[in-house]
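Shipment paperwork, digital attachment
Item: protein structure file
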Amino acid sequence: MPSPDRNILQFQKIEFQHKVSFITYADFESIIIPYHSVQPTNQRSYTEKIARHEPCGYAYVVIDANGKMLKPITVYRGPDAATHFINNLIKEKDQITPMFTTIMPMNLSPEEEQFNSETRCYLCKHLLENDKLRDHCHLSGRYRGAAHNYCNLKYKMRKMIPVVFHNLKNYDAHHIIKCLGNFKDHEFNILANNMEKYITFSMRKNIKENNFTVSLQFIDSFQFLPASLQKNNLSIISIAPLSTASTTTLSLPPQPYLYHHNLISTTTTLSLPPQSYLYHHNLISTTTILSLPPQSYHNHHNLLSQPPQPYRYHHNLITTPPPPLC
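Attachment content:
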């Protein structure tokens, strides 16, 4: 049995109280590329693969400890979106890393009287003794409170930047994991449920510069908010509209219609095509869809034929008809 002075379970991981200094929120968009294979036999059970998801773009934003964006939202549309995304994150990390090592001087003049009157550590809440000292934010220089020397040493910024996806485990992680082999100079730590679902994973450089390295920690917000973002009724930050040269989007085509990366940019959509027709990247650039497809065309889930002639494209972007969808 524990002694009377040690029979109370207390929180001791003071370093985990520190809020992250920077956080990244990201999301992928994908095109759905249908498979064309022989008709499976019904003599035994089988799983029929009808399409695969290929990332065609992403967007992310980096937020600091004060809730402000470090720069405008980064948006990319094009091929190799997952590899391009990781490369951009590494660049962002390299730009942020010097901020972790720079200590701003403490501006104490307004808080001097408050420090002298404080009798308890603002971190562990225990009485202060001879080891009382001032704790401040190393990024802003803001005075935070009086603390024990031990608590002050434990309470430090973690060398980590969270990268948050909603539903990372079930979707976005598949795109990222596939491209991690391209980054030979990084090491990875993965926590998985099985070979297909990853709860969280991190990456950081193998070579430490001045014994200091910052890792990227990918986490799933769905683990904490198990519903769609719309149902969670999250507040949306008001952001000025993005300016994209030669782009006029009146309405967005359904997602599986985008079946080529080049169909995503400089698109004027006058009417909505069927969802599964976009399965190639080239269909997303400089395309004007002039008319709705006939009702007889369905998406690839119905396994019907390719769309007939009423599809018209500006500047004859498609020189060859798309492959059949069945």
